[in-house]
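Practice problem: predict the structure.
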Amino acid sequence: MSLSEIYSSGFKNRNRDHFAAIVRVALSDGIITDEEKAFLNRTAINLEIEENEYQMILDNANQYAINPPATELSRLERLYDLTRMIYADHIADQGEKQLLGRLVIGLGFNTQEADAIVSKALDLVRSGLDEDDFVAAFK
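Answer:
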């Protein structure tokens, strides 16, 4: 196996696991709304999730690991995606917020700061910031 094949495989696995985390947020209230489905479809395309993988992840989202990104920038980009998923249906319920808190810790953020990070992330996405401004607000 060449180095490029290993890198590609690892990259694809990280994308798959990130997508599974987003699906977990979507499913946290027991349903996937049309808005959430549209967000998932766009995200699957962006993360290069194949159709058969998409369905497997929908059916078994909890079976995938949370692979913490190595860089702060990657963690913040993933946090942005996860937070946007919460607001995809225009409702941020308590279950989704609690799940986001667990995912924040799984992404490698400081456990003691998790609640503050979740609160700030929700506020920033609710105010309409794009990904670049979201990331900048955490720096």
